[in-house]
Automatic annotation (TrEMBL):
It is an enzyme of class 2 (transferase). Consists of three domains, a large central CORE domain and two small peripheral domains, NMPbind and LID, which undergo movements during catalysis. The LID domain closes over the site of phosphoryl transfer upon ATP binding. Assembling and dissambling the active center during each catalytic cycle provides an effective means to prevent ATP hydrolysis. GO terms for molecular function: AMP kinase activity. It comes from the Bacteria. Its EC number is 2.7.4.3. It is found in: Cytoplasm. The keyword Cytoplasm applies. Catalyzes the reversible transfer of the terminal phosphate group between ATP and AMP. Plays an important role in cellular energy homeostasis and in adenine nucleotide metabolism. Residues 31-60 are annotated as: NMP. This is Adenylate kinase.
Amino acid sequence: MIAIVLFGKPGAGKGTQAEFLKEKYNLTHISTGDVFRFNLKNDTDLGKQARIYMDNGELVPDEITINMLKAEVEKNMDKAGFLFDGFPRTIAQAEALDTFLNSINLQVTATIGLEANDDVLVARILERGKTSGRPDDQDEAKIRTRYEEYNEKTAPLIDFYKKQNKYYPIDGIGSIPEITERLSSVIDKL
């Protein structure tokens, strides 16, 4: 069983590529955003806990997020592995993910980084914003603020995973099939 973290800035194509990879490799795609929406919509205990923080404009604590992800992993143990998208976003989350995976005799197999120039990604997101309906996809200043937060909090994960020899950067610019092929060439060697 493998556990892959798909890594990259907003607009890098993680969600798009995850759709192809989950089918090709029989992986469970675990998108943090989707997991949150499911728990909130279905008013689960974890969703109720998360809502308290969200309603107060606060970040949901890592413990609640990890517990949501644990539930997703535990109900999908029949797959060949997991593809994490949008998690971890901080060193603390990466350490919590490692602790959880170790408890079920798994570990992060690889972190694959979709790398691309900020200007290219901003253009992608602004284009996506024309149909996504997300206000934060339609405002360049907000997009660039998301990148600042990414650089501050998430980019340190690159070194975290490099030290474990688990970071694989790939060029995130090109056609969707070209990028899928680059990702597959890394996964096929794991």
